[in-house]
Amino acid sequence: MSTVTTARNGRTVSVPVESLAPPVVIDCKLDQVYYGSFLAVRDSHVQIQRGKITGFIGPSGCGKSTVLRSLNRMNDLIRGFRLHGEVRFHGTDVYARSVDPVAVRRHIGMVFQQPNPFSMSVFDNVAFGLRLNRFRGDVAARVEEALRKAALWDEVKDKLKASGLSLSGGQQQRLCIARAVATQPAVLLMDEPCSALDPIATRRIEELMVQLKEDYTIAIVTHNMQQAQRVADVTAFFSVDITKGTRTGYLVESGPTQQVFESPAELLTKEYVAGHFS
Amino acid sequence: MNDLAAGAARTLPDVALLERSRFEPRAMRNLVLTAGIWLAALIAGVPLVSVLYLLIVRGGARLSVEALTALPPAGFEMGGGFGNAIVGTVMMVGIAGLISVPLGVVAAVFLAELQPTGRLARTARFAAKTLTGLPSVLAGVFAYAVVVLATGTYSAPAGGLALAVLMLPIVVLTAEEAIKAVPRITRDAAYGMGCTRSQVAWKVLLPTALPGILTGVMLAVARAAGETAPLLFTALFSGFWPFDGGRPQVMQPTASLAVLIYNFSGMPFENQIELAWAASLVLVSMVLIINVVSRLLGRPRA
Q: Which of B16, B50, B279, B281 could join B59 in a cystine, given CB atoms 3.0 to 4.6 angstroms apart?
Protein backbone atom coordinates (compact mmCIF):
# COMPACT_ATOMS: atom_id res chain seq x y z
CA MET A 1 0.00 0.00 0.00
CA SER A 2 2.84 2.33 -0.69
CA THR A 3 1.41 3.43 -4.00
CA VAL A 4 -1.91 4.55 -5.31
CA THR A 5 -2.58 3.12 -8.72
CA THR A 6 -5.01 4.45 -11.26
CA ALA A 7 -5.58 3.73 -14.90
CA ARG A 8 -6.73 6.46 -17.21
CA ASN A 9 -6.83 6.26 -20.97
CA GLY A 10 -5.21 2.85 -20.69
CA ARG A 11 -2.10 4.21 -18.98
CA THR A 12 -1.33 3.06 -15.48
CA VAL A 13 0.20 5.68 -13.27
CA SER A 14 1.61 4.91 -9.86
CA VAL A 15 1.97 7.72 -7.40
CA PRO A 16 4.16 6.98 -4.39
CA VAL A 17 2.10 8.06 -1.43
CA GLU A 18 4.66 7.62 1.32
CA SER A 19 7.15 9.95 -0.29
CA LEU A 20 4.74 12.81 -0.96
CA ALA A 21 2.59 12.30 2.06
CA PRO A 22 2.79 15.04 4.61
CA PRO A 23 0.79 14.46 7.78
CA VAL A 24 -1.99 16.52 6.17
CA VAL A 25 -3.53 14.58 3.28
CA ILE A 26 -6.23 17.09 2.43
CA ASP A 27 -5.87 20.76 3.21
CA CYS A 28 -9.23 22.36 2.55
CA LYS A 29 -9.59 26.15 2.61
CA LEU A 30 -13.08 27.18 1.61
CA ASP A 31 -13.77 30.90 1.31
CA GLN A 32 -17.29 30.62 -0.08
CA VAL A 33 -19.36 27.75 -1.40
CA TYR A 34 -22.53 28.64 -3.28
CA TYR A 35 -25.51 26.70 -4.58
CA GLY A 36 -26.80 29.19 -7.12
CA SER A 37 -27.06 32.46 -5.21
CA PHE A 38 -27.29 30.70 -1.83
CA LEU A 39 -24.11 30.97 0.23
CA ALA A 40 -23.95 27.53 1.86
CA VAL A 41 -20.53 27.62 3.54
CA ARG A 42 -18.00 30.35 4.27
CA ASP A 43 -14.54 30.68 5.81
CA SER A 44 -13.82 27.10 6.72
CA HIS A 45 -10.31 25.68 6.91
CA VAL A 46 -10.25 21.95 7.59
CA GLN A 47 -7.27 19.63 7.51
CA ILE A 48 -7.60 15.89 7.10
CA GLN A 49 -4.63 14.18 8.72
CA ARG A 50 -3.10 10.97 7.49
CA GLY A 51 -4.15 7.79 9.29
CA LYS A 52 -6.66 9.55 11.49
CA ILE A 53 -10.43 9.82 11.62
CA THR A 54 -11.65 13.38 11.29
CA GLY A 55 -15.22 13.90 12.46
CA PHE A 56 -17.39 16.76 11.16
CA ILE A 57 -20.11 17.65 13.65
CA GLY A 58 -22.62 20.45 13.92
CA PRO A 59 -26.32 21.28 13.78
CA SER A 60 -28.51 20.70 10.68
CA GLY A 61 -27.71 22.98 7.78
CA CYS A 62 -24.23 23.84 9.04
CA GLY A 63 -22.67 22.74 5.77
CA LYS A 64 -20.71 19.77 7.11
CA SER A 65 -21.91 17.51 4.29
CA THR A 66 -21.24 20.23 1.75
CA VAL A 67 -17.66 20.53 2.98
CA LEU A 68 -17.19 16.76 2.90
CA ARG A 69 -18.60 16.46 -0.62
CA SER A 70 -16.37 19.33 -1.75
CA LEU A 71 -13.32 17.22 -0.96
CA ASN A 72 -13.88 14.76 -3.83
CA ARG A 73 -15.83 17.12 -6.09
CA MET A 74 -19.13 15.28 -5.61
CA ASN A 75 -20.80 18.69 -5.44
CA ASP A 76 -19.91 19.24 -9.10
CA LEU A 77 -22.99 17.11 -9.85
CA ILE A 78 -25.25 19.69 -8.23
CA ARG A 79 -26.51 22.42 -10.51
CA GLY A 80 -25.35 25.89 -9.53
CA PHE A 81 -22.49 24.73 -7.29
CA ARG A 82 -19.57 27.20 -7.12
CA LEU A 83 -16.58 27.10 -4.84
CA HIS A 84 -14.12 29.85 -3.97
CA GLY A 85 -11.05 28.58 -2.21
CA GLU A 86 -8.88 25.53 -2.64
CA VAL A 87 -8.83 21.90 -1.66
CA ARG A 88 -5.26 20.62 -1.71
CA PHE A 89 -4.93 16.85 -1.94
CA HIS A 90 -1.26 15.89 -1.53
CA GLY A 91 -0.49 19.48 -2.46
CA THR A 92 -2.56 19.61 -5.66
CA ASP A 93 -5.66 21.80 -5.77
CA VAL A 94 -8.43 19.41 -6.87
CA TYR A 95 -10.36 22.38 -8.25
CA ALA A 96 -7.48 23.40 -10.52
CA ARG A 97 -8.51 23.64 -14.17
CA SER A 98 -6.14 20.82 -15.16
CA VAL A 99 -7.61 18.34 -12.67
CA ASP A 100 -10.13 15.70 -13.77
CA PRO A 101 -12.86 15.30 -11.13
CA VAL A 102 -13.26 11.63 -12.12
CA ALA A 103 -9.61 10.98 -11.17
CA VAL A 104 -10.11 12.81 -7.85
CA ARG A 105 -13.04 10.53 -6.98
CA ARG A 106 -10.95 7.45 -7.73
CA HIS A 107 -8.42 8.50 -5.10
CA ILE A 108 -10.91 9.79 -2.56
CA GLY A 109 -13.59 7.16 -2.01
CA MET A 110 -17.02 7.81 -0.57
CA VAL A 111 -19.64 6.05 1.55
CA PHE A 112 -23.08 7.62 1.58
CA GLN A 113 -25.87 8.17 4.07
CA GLN A 114 -28.20 5.60 2.51
CA PRO A 115 -26.62 2.25 1.69
CA ASN A 116 -26.50 2.27 -2.11
CA PRO A 117 -25.12 -0.99 -3.50
CA PHE A 118 -25.53 -1.44 -7.24
CA SER A 119 -28.21 -3.79 -8.53
CA MET A 120 -25.62 -6.51 -9.18
CA SER A 121 -24.03 -9.37 -7.27
CA VAL A 122 -22.09 -8.88 -4.03
CA PHE A 123 -18.90 -9.83 -5.87
CA ASP A 124 -19.55 -7.48 -8.78
CA ASN A 125 -20.28 -4.61 -6.40
CA VAL A 126 -16.86 -4.95 -4.79
CA ALA A 127 -15.11 -5.64 -8.10
CA PHE A 128 -16.80 -2.62 -9.71
CA GLY A 129 -14.04 -0.12 -8.91
CA LEU A 130 -11.29 -2.62 -9.76
CA ARG A 131 -12.76 -3.22 -13.19
CA LEU A 132 -13.32 0.51 -13.64
CA ASN A 133 -9.61 1.04 -13.00
CA ARG A 134 -8.64 -1.90 -15.25
CA PHE A 135 -7.04 -3.67 -12.31
CA ARG A 136 -4.75 -6.36 -13.71
CA GLY A 137 -4.15 -8.46 -10.60
CA ASP A 138 -6.22 -11.13 -8.94
CA VAL A 139 -9.68 -9.55 -8.73
CA ALA A 140 -11.11 -12.36 -6.57
CA ALA A 141 -8.32 -11.97 -4.02
CA ARG A 142 -8.83 -8.21 -3.81
CA VAL A 143 -12.60 -8.66 -3.45
CA GLU A 144 -12.06 -11.09 -0.58
CA GLU A 145 -9.55 -8.75 1.06
CA ALA A 146 -11.94 -5.80 0.79
CA LEU A 147 -14.86 -7.83 2.18
CA ARG A 148 -12.70 -9.01 5.08
CA LYS A 149 -11.65 -5.43 5.80
CA ALA A 150 -15.30 -4.44 5.81
CA ALA A 151 -16.02 -7.27 8.30
CA LEU A 152 -18.50 -8.76 5.85
CA TRP A 153 -16.62 -11.74 4.39
CA ASP A 154 -17.90 -14.38 6.80
CA GLU A 155 -21.49 -13.34 6.21
CA VAL A 156 -21.38 -13.27 2.41
CA LYS A 157 -18.65 -15.72 1.38
CA ASP A 158 -21.30 -18.32 0.48
CA LYS A 159 -23.50 -15.90 -1.45
CA LEU A 160 -21.13 -13.79 -3.49
CA LYS A 161 -23.45 -14.27 -6.48
CA ALA A 162 -26.52 -13.01 -4.63
CA SER A 163 -27.67 -9.49 -5.37
CA GLY A 164 -26.13 -6.79 -3.20
CA LEU A 165 -29.67 -5.52 -2.65
CA SER A 166 -30.68 -8.79 -0.96
CA LEU A 167 -28.49 -8.04 2.08
CA SER A 168 -29.74 -6.33 5.25
CA GLY A 169 -29.27 -2.57 5.66
CA GLY A 170 -26.19 -2.87 7.83
CA GLN A 171 -24.67 -5.49 5.52
CA GLN A 172 -25.42 -3.27 2.52
CA GLN A 173 -23.56 -0.40 4.15
CA ARG A 174 -20.56 -2.64 4.89
CA LEU A 175 -20.75 -3.79 1.26
CA CYS A 176 -20.54 -0.14 0.21
CA ILE A 177 -17.50 0.26 2.46
CA ALA A 178 -15.92 -2.83 0.88
CA ARG A 179 -16.67 -1.42 -2.56
CA ALA A 180 -15.01 1.86 -1.60
CA VAL A 181 -11.88 0.30 -0.05
CA ALA A 182 -11.35 -2.33 -2.78
CA THR A 183 -9.51 0.20 -4.95
CA GLN A 184 -7.43 1.30 -1.94
CA PRO A 185 -8.20 5.01 -2.12
CA ALA A 186 -6.00 7.42 -0.18
CA VAL A 187 -8.94 8.86 1.73
CA LEU A 188 -12.39 7.53 2.61
CA LEU A 189 -15.21 10.06 3.02
CA MET A 190 -18.26 8.93 4.98
CA ASP A 191 -21.40 11.06 4.93
CA GLU A 192 -23.47 10.07 7.99
CA PRO A 193 -22.86 6.37 7.23
CA CYS A 194 -24.89 5.12 10.18
CA SER A 195 -27.90 7.40 10.11
CA ALA A 196 -30.04 4.85 8.25
CA LEU A 197 -28.93 1.93 10.45
CA ASP A 198 -30.06 0.40 13.73
CA PRO A 199 -27.85 0.66 16.86
CA ILE A 200 -26.27 -2.79 16.43
CA ALA A 201 -25.33 -2.18 12.81
CA THR A 202 -24.10 1.28 13.80
CA ARG A 203 -21.80 -0.20 16.42
CA ARG A 204 -20.36 -2.60 13.84
CA ILE A 205 -19.64 0.22 11.39
CA GLU A 206 -18.00 2.26 14.15
CA GLU A 207 -15.74 -0.66 15.12
CA LEU A 208 -14.97 -1.07 11.45
CA MET A 209 -13.94 2.56 11.06
CA VAL A 210 -11.47 2.24 13.92
CA GLN A 211 -9.98 -0.85 12.24
CA LEU A 212 -9.88 0.82 8.85
CA LYS A 213 -7.84 3.77 10.03
CA GLU A 214 -4.84 1.44 10.22
CA ASP A 215 -4.81 1.60 6.42
CA TYR A 216 -6.95 4.56 5.48
CA THR A 217 -7.45 8.18 6.23
CA ILE A 218 -11.10 8.78 7.05
CA ALA A 219 -13.33 11.83 7.20
CA ILE A 220 -16.81 11.30 8.59
CA VAL A 221 -19.84 13.55 8.86
CA THR A 222 -22.01 12.65 11.81
CA HIS A 223 -25.09 14.05 13.43
CA ASN A 224 -24.30 12.10 16.53
CA MET A 225 -21.90 13.65 19.03
CA GLN A 226 -21.37 10.40 20.91
CA GLN A 227 -20.34 8.79 17.66
CA ALA A 228 -17.77 11.52 17.04
CA GLN A 229 -16.43 11.04 20.56
CA ARG A 230 -16.22 7.28 20.06
CA VAL A 231 -14.45 7.19 16.72
CA ALA A 232 -12.94 10.56 15.76
CA ASP A 233 -9.34 11.51 16.54
CA VAL A 234 -9.88 15.04 15.30
CA THR A 235 -13.20 16.87 15.43
CA ALA A 236 -14.29 19.85 13.35
CA PHE A 237 -17.32 21.70 14.71
CA PHE A 238 -19.45 23.65 12.23
CA SER A 239 -22.32 25.97 12.97
CA VAL A 240 -24.93 28.03 11.13
CA ASP A 241 -24.72 31.79 10.79
CA ILE A 242 -28.25 33.19 10.52
CA THR A 243 -27.31 36.86 11.09
CA LYS A 244 -27.51 37.83 7.40
CA GLY A 245 -31.00 36.44 6.88
CA THR A 246 -29.81 33.20 5.30
CA ARG A 247 -28.33 30.05 6.72
CA THR A 248 -24.62 29.90 6.05
CA GLY A 249 -22.42 27.24 7.59
CA TYR A 250 -18.92 27.90 8.84
CA LEU A 251 -16.21 26.17 10.84
CA VAL A 252 -16.26 27.22 14.49
CA GLU A 253 -13.25 25.28 15.65
CA SER A 254 -11.36 22.08 15.13
CA GLY A 255 -8.83 20.12 17.12
CA PRO A 256 -8.21 16.84 18.89
CA THR A 257 -11.61 15.33 19.78
CA GLN A 258 -10.98 15.31 23.51
CA GLN A 259 -10.03 18.97 23.48
CA VAL A 260 -13.06 20.00 21.40
CA PHE A 261 -15.41 18.15 23.74
CA GLU A 262 -13.79 18.86 27.09
CA SER A 263 -12.12 22.24 26.80
CA PRO A 264 -13.42 23.94 23.68
CA ALA A 265 -11.99 27.33 22.76
CA GLU A 266 -15.34 28.76 21.65
CA LEU A 267 -18.44 29.26 23.76
CA LEU A 268 -20.64 28.07 20.87
CA THR A 269 -18.80 24.74 20.79
CA LYS A 270 -19.19 24.39 24.52
CA GLU A 271 -22.94 24.95 24.29
CA TYR A 272 -23.31 22.52 21.40
CA VAL A 273 -21.33 19.66 22.94
CA ALA A 274 -23.24 20.18 26.18
CA GLY A 275 -26.45 19.62 24.21
CA HIS A 276 -27.85 23.14 24.56
CA PHE A 277 -28.83 23.19 20.88
CA SER A 278 -28.71 20.78 17.98
CA MET B 1 -61.13 14.17 33.51
CA ASN B 2 -64.29 12.69 34.93
CA ASP B 3 -66.40 15.12 32.91
CA LEU B 4 -64.57 14.10 29.79
CA ALA B 5 -65.08 10.41 30.44
CA ALA B 6 -68.75 10.93 31.13
CA GLY B 7 -69.18 12.99 27.96
CA ALA B 8 -67.38 10.38 25.91
CA ALA B 9 -69.54 7.64 27.34
CA ARG B 10 -72.65 9.45 26.17
CA THR B 11 -71.46 9.80 22.55
CA LEU B 12 -69.76 6.43 22.09
CA PRO B 13 -72.03 3.62 20.86
CA ASP B 14 -72.78 0.59 23.00
CA VAL B 15 -70.74 -2.52 22.44
CA ALA B 16 -73.69 -4.12 20.66
CA LEU B 17 -73.58 -1.40 17.97
CA LEU B 18 -70.09 -2.49 16.89
CA GLU B 19 -71.66 -5.38 15.06
CA ARG B 20 -71.96 -5.13 11.32
CA SER B 21 -75.29 -3.85 10.07
CA ARG B 22 -76.17 -4.45 6.44
CA PHE B 23 -78.95 -1.92 6.21
CA GLU B 24 -77.35 1.20 7.52
CA PRO B 25 -76.75 3.84 4.74
CA ARG B 26 -72.95 3.58 4.93
CA ALA B 27 -73.00 -0.20 4.48
CA MET B 28 -75.52 0.04 1.63
CA ARG B 29 -73.40 2.60 -0.18
CA ASN B 30 -70.35 0.41 0.25
CA LEU B 31 -72.22 -2.57 -1.18
CA VAL B 32 -73.51 -0.65 -4.22
CA LEU B 33 -70.12 0.85 -5.04
CA THR B 34 -68.34 -2.48 -4.64
CA ALA B 35 -70.85 -4.14 -6.93
CA GLY B 36 -70.39 -1.31 -9.44
CA ILE B 37 -66.63 -1.77 -9.47
CA TRP B 38 -66.96 -5.54 -9.97
CA LEU B 39 -69.39 -4.94 -12.82
CA ALA B 40 -67.08 -2.44 -14.53
CA ALA B 41 -64.16 -4.84 -14.20
CA LEU B 42 -66.23 -7.66 -15.72
CA ILE B 43 -67.41 -5.48 -18.61
CA ALA B 44 -63.83 -4.40 -19.29
CA GLY B 45 -62.83 -8.06 -19.43
CA VAL B 46 -65.58 -9.09 -21.86
CA PRO B 47 -63.89 -7.97 -25.12
CA LEU B 48 -60.55 -9.47 -24.11
CA VAL B 49 -62.00 -12.79 -23.04
CA SER B 50 -64.34 -13.08 -26.02
CA VAL B 51 -61.55 -12.32 -28.50
CA LEU B 52 -59.30 -14.89 -26.84
CA TYR B 53 -62.15 -17.40 -26.74
CA LEU B 54 -62.94 -17.02 -30.43
CA LEU B 55 -59.24 -17.15 -31.32
CA ILE B 56 -58.70 -20.35 -29.41
CA VAL B 57 -61.87 -22.06 -30.60
CA ARG B 58 -61.82 -21.03 -34.26
CA GLY B 59 -58.06 -20.63 -34.70
CA GLY B 60 -57.20 -23.70 -32.66
CA ALA B 61 -59.49 -25.84 -34.83
CA ARG B 62 -57.32 -25.26 -37.88
CA LEU B 63 -53.94 -25.20 -36.13
CA SER B 64 -51.71 -28.01 -37.41
CA VAL B 65 -48.16 -28.70 -38.46
CA GLU B 66 -49.24 -28.07 -42.03
CA ALA B 67 -50.70 -24.67 -41.18
CA LEU B 68 -47.48 -23.66 -39.46
CA THR B 69 -45.12 -24.86 -42.17
CA ALA B 70 -46.89 -24.83 -45.56
CA LEU B 71 -47.12 -21.98 -48.05
CA PRO B 72 -50.42 -20.07 -48.43
CA PRO B 73 -52.99 -21.71 -50.72
CA ALA B 74 -54.25 -20.08 -53.91
CA GLY B 75 -57.91 -19.31 -54.61
CA PHE B 76 -59.83 -22.63 -54.60
CA GLU B 77 -56.93 -24.70 -53.30
CA MET B 78 -57.50 -26.67 -50.10
CA GLY B 79 -55.05 -27.05 -47.22
CA GLY B 80 -51.96 -24.88 -47.11
CA GLY B 81 -50.68 -22.72 -44.29
CA PHE B 82 -48.72 -19.59 -43.45
CA GLY B 83 -45.15 -20.71 -42.69
CA ASN B 84 -43.64 -18.00 -44.86
CA ALA B 85 -45.73 -15.35 -43.11
CA ILE B 86 -44.39 -16.42 -39.68
CA VAL B 87 -40.83 -16.20 -41.02
CA GLY B 88 -41.59 -12.84 -42.64
CA THR B 89 -43.09 -11.36 -39.46
CA VAL B 90 -40.14 -12.55 -37.36
CA MET B 91 -37.74 -11.17 -39.95
CA MET B 92 -39.36 -7.75 -40.23
CA VAL B 93 -39.93 -7.30 -36.49
CA GLY B 94 -36.29 -8.35 -36.08
CA ILE B 95 -35.11 -5.73 -38.56
CA ALA B 96 -37.30 -3.13 -36.86
CA GLY B 97 -35.86 -4.08 -33.47
CA LEU B 98 -32.28 -3.91 -34.73
CA ILE B 99 -32.95 -0.36 -35.93
CA SER B 100 -35.14 1.00 -33.15
CA VAL B 101 -33.77 -0.58 -29.96
CA PRO B 102 -30.12 0.59 -30.11
CA LEU B 103 -31.16 3.99 -31.44
CA GLY B 104 -33.99 4.36 -28.92
CA VAL B 105 -31.94 3.29 -25.89
CA VAL B 106 -29.05 5.60 -26.75
CA ALA B 107 -31.52 8.44 -27.29
CA ALA B 108 -33.11 7.64 -23.93
CA VAL B 109 -29.71 7.84 -22.19
CA PHE B 110 -29.25 11.26 -23.74
CA LEU B 111 -32.71 12.42 -22.66
CA ALA B 112 -32.54 10.99 -19.15
CA GLU B 113 -28.94 11.59 -18.15
CA LEU B 114 -26.75 13.61 -20.49
CA GLN B 115 -28.81 16.67 -21.43
CA PRO B 116 -32.27 16.27 -19.88
CA THR B 117 -33.23 19.93 -20.16
CA GLY B 118 -31.39 21.05 -23.30
CA ARG B 119 -33.15 22.38 -26.37
CA LEU B 120 -32.27 19.28 -28.38
CA ALA B 121 -33.64 17.02 -25.63
CA ARG B 122 -36.90 18.95 -25.39
CA THR B 123 -37.32 18.86 -29.17
CA ALA B 124 -36.54 15.14 -29.34
CA ARG B 125 -38.92 14.33 -26.49
CA PHE B 126 -41.70 16.33 -28.13
CA ALA B 127 -41.04 14.58 -31.44
CA ALA B 128 -41.13 11.15 -29.76
CA LYS B 129 -44.42 11.94 -28.02
CA THR B 130 -45.92 13.13 -31.29
CA LEU B 131 -44.66 10.01 -33.09
CA THR B 132 -46.43 7.71 -30.61
CA GLY B 133 -49.69 9.05 -32.02
CA LEU B 134 -48.58 8.77 -35.64
CA PRO B 135 -51.17 6.90 -37.75
CA SER B 136 -49.35 3.71 -38.64
CA VAL B 137 -50.18 4.04 -42.32
CA LEU B 138 -47.97 7.14 -42.41
CA ALA B 139 -45.00 5.10 -41.20
CA GLY B 140 -45.66 2.94 -44.26
CA VAL B 141 -45.75 5.99 -46.53
CA PHE B 142 -42.42 7.11 -45.07
CA ALA B 143 -40.75 3.73 -45.65
CA TYR B 144 -42.31 3.54 -49.12
CA ALA B 145 -40.70 6.86 -50.04
CA VAL B 146 -37.35 6.12 -48.44
CA VAL B 147 -36.81 2.45 -49.30
CA VAL B 148 -39.33 1.18 -51.86
CA LEU B 149 -38.90 4.06 -54.28
CA ALA B 150 -35.13 4.10 -53.81
CA THR B 151 -34.62 0.36 -54.31
CA GLY B 152 -37.43 -0.14 -56.79
CA THR B 153 -38.95 -3.13 -54.98
CA TYR B 154 -41.18 -4.03 -52.08
CA SER B 155 -39.01 -5.69 -49.47
CA ALA B 156 -38.56 -6.89 -45.88
CA PRO B 157 -36.19 -4.00 -45.01
CA ALA B 158 -38.85 -1.54 -46.18
CA GLY B 159 -41.41 -3.21 -43.92
CA GLY B 160 -38.86 -3.37 -41.12
CA LEU B 161 -38.12 0.34 -41.40
CA ALA B 162 -41.83 1.20 -41.30
CA LEU B 163 -42.23 -0.88 -38.12
CA ALA B 164 -39.07 0.68 -36.66
CA VAL B 165 -40.62 4.13 -37.04
CA LEU B 166 -43.55 2.91 -34.94
CA MET B 167 -41.36 1.21 -32.33
CA LEU B 168 -38.81 3.98 -31.89
CA PRO B 169 -40.90 6.46 -29.85
CA ILE B 170 -42.21 3.71 -27.55
CA VAL B 171 -38.68 2.47 -26.89
CA VAL B 172 -37.33 6.01 -26.33
CA LEU B 173 -40.04 7.14 -23.93
CA THR B 174 -40.26 3.97 -21.83
CA ALA B 175 -36.46 3.61 -21.64
CA GLU B 176 -36.17 7.26 -20.59
CA GLU B 177 -38.67 6.69 -17.78
CA ALA B 178 -36.87 3.50 -16.72
CA ILE B 179 -33.49 5.26 -16.58
CA LYS B 180 -34.95 8.23 -14.71
CA ALA B 181 -36.40 5.82 -12.15
CA VAL B 182 -32.90 4.67 -11.10
CA PRO B 183 -32.53 6.21 -7.63
CA ARG B 184 -30.39 9.31 -7.11
CA ILE B 185 -28.28 7.45 -4.51
CA THR B 186 -27.31 4.82 -7.08
CA ARG B 187 -26.04 7.53 -9.42
CA ASP B 188 -24.16 9.10 -6.51
CA ALA B 189 -22.51 5.76 -5.78
CA ALA B 190 -21.40 5.44 -9.39
CA TYR B 191 -20.00 8.98 -9.59
CA GLY B 192 -18.43 8.49 -6.16
CA MET B 193 -16.55 5.44 -7.46
CA GLY B 194 -15.01 7.66 -10.12
CA CYS B 195 -17.19 6.82 -13.11
CA THR B 196 -17.30 9.16 -16.06
CA ARG B 197 -20.79 10.09 -17.25
CA SER B 198 -20.73 7.50 -19.99
CA GLN B 199 -19.54 4.85 -17.51
CA VAL B 200 -22.39 5.79 -15.19
CA ALA B 201 -24.79 5.30 -18.08
CA TRP B 202 -23.37 2.03 -19.43
CA LYS B 203 -22.19 0.27 -16.29
CA VAL B 204 -24.85 1.33 -13.79
CA LEU B 205 -27.93 3.06 -15.23
CA LEU B 206 -28.62 0.71 -18.14
CA PRO B 207 -28.14 -2.55 -16.17
CA THR B 208 -30.29 -1.20 -13.34
CA ALA B 209 -32.99 0.03 -15.72
CA LEU B 210 -32.89 -3.13 -17.87
CA PRO B 211 -36.22 -4.63 -16.70
CA GLY B 212 -38.03 -1.37 -17.48
CA ILE B 213 -36.29 -0.99 -20.84
CA LEU B 214 -37.16 -4.59 -21.81
CA THR B 215 -40.79 -3.96 -20.92
CA GLY B 216 -40.79 -0.98 -23.28
CA VAL B 217 -39.13 -2.97 -26.04
CA MET B 218 -41.73 -5.70 -25.65
CA LEU B 219 -44.58 -3.22 -25.81
CA ALA B 220 -43.05 -1.92 -29.01
CA VAL B 221 -42.55 -5.42 -30.45
CA ALA B 222 -46.12 -6.33 -29.58
CA ARG B 223 -47.38 -3.25 -31.37
CA ALA B 224 -45.15 -3.73 -34.40
CA ALA B 225 -45.96 -7.44 -34.82
CA GLY B 226 -49.67 -6.70 -35.09
CA GLU B 227 -49.45 -3.76 -37.50
CA THR B 228 -50.88 -4.29 -40.97
CA ALA B 229 -51.14 -0.85 -42.55
CA PRO B 230 -47.40 -0.02 -42.61
CA LEU B 231 -46.65 -3.30 -44.36
CA LEU B 232 -49.32 -3.11 -47.08
CA PHE B 233 -47.21 -1.03 -49.45
CA THR B 234 -43.72 -1.66 -48.07
CA ALA B 235 -43.39 -5.44 -47.73
CA LEU B 236 -46.61 -6.19 -49.63
CA PHE B 237 -47.23 -9.96 -49.51
CA SER B 238 -45.81 -13.06 -51.05
CA GLY B 239 -46.93 -16.61 -51.57
CA PHE B 240 -43.36 -17.88 -51.42
CA TRP B 241 -40.56 -18.40 -48.93
CA PRO B 242 -38.15 -15.50 -48.45
CA PHE B 243 -35.30 -17.90 -49.26
CA ASP B 244 -33.57 -18.93 -52.42
CA GLY B 245 -31.51 -22.09 -52.29
CA GLY B 246 -31.11 -21.80 -48.51
CA ARG B 247 -29.95 -18.16 -48.64
CA PRO B 248 -32.29 -15.48 -47.28
CA GLN B 249 -33.77 -13.29 -49.98
CA VAL B 250 -34.88 -10.02 -48.42
CA MET B 251 -35.13 -7.66 -51.39
CA GLN B 252 -38.45 -9.01 -52.62
CA PRO B 253 -42.08 -8.78 -51.47
CA THR B 254 -42.34 -10.53 -48.10
CA ALA B 255 -45.27 -12.17 -46.37
CA SER B 256 -46.33 -11.30 -42.85
CA LEU B 257 -48.96 -12.71 -40.50
CA ALA B 258 -50.77 -9.37 -40.18
CA VAL B 259 -51.14 -8.85 -43.92
CA LEU B 260 -52.07 -12.52 -44.40
CA ILE B 261 -54.86 -12.17 -41.84
CA TYR B 262 -56.01 -8.97 -43.54
CA ASN B 263 -55.98 -10.55 -47.01
CA PHE B 264 -57.45 -13.94 -46.12
CA SER B 265 -60.19 -12.74 -43.78
CA GLY B 266 -61.78 -10.80 -46.64
CA MET B 267 -61.77 -13.70 -49.05
CA PRO B 268 -64.94 -15.65 -49.97
CA PHE B 269 -63.20 -19.02 -49.36
CA GLU B 270 -63.78 -20.96 -46.16
CA ASN B 271 -60.25 -22.43 -46.27
CA GLN B 272 -58.61 -18.99 -46.27
CA ILE B 273 -60.89 -17.67 -43.54
CA GLU B 274 -60.01 -20.62 -41.32
CA LEU B 275 -56.32 -19.99 -41.97
CA ALA B 276 -56.76 -16.33 -41.03
CA TRP B 277 -58.16 -17.43 -37.67
CA ALA B 278 -55.29 -19.82 -37.09
CA ALA B 279 -52.77 -17.16 -38.09
CA SER B 280 -54.36 -14.74 -35.61
CA LEU B 281 -53.97 -17.26 -32.83
CA VAL B 282 -50.32 -17.79 -33.78
CA LEU B 283 -49.66 -14.03 -33.84
CA VAL B 284 -51.19 -13.51 -30.40
CA SER B 285 -49.26 -16.49 -29.03
CA MET B 286 -45.98 -15.14 -30.41
CA VAL B 287 -46.52 -11.80 -28.70
CA LEU B 288 -47.45 -13.58 -25.48
CA ILE B 289 -44.35 -15.79 -25.54
CA ILE B 290 -42.04 -12.83 -26.19
CA ASN B 291 -43.67 -11.01 -23.29
CA VAL B 292 -43.21 -13.89 -20.86
CA VAL B 293 -39.62 -14.52 -21.91
CA SER B 294 -38.69 -10.86 -21.59
CA ARG B 295 -40.19 -10.72 -18.13
CA LEU B 296 -38.13 -13.73 -17.07
CA LEU B 297 -34.96 -12.24 -18.55
CA GLY B 298 -35.56 -8.79 -17.17
CA ARG B 299 -36.44 -9.85 -13.66
CA PRO B 300 -34.23 -8.09 -11.11
CA ARG B 301 -31.98 -10.54 -9.33
CA ALA B 302 -32.76 -9.25 -5.84
A: B281
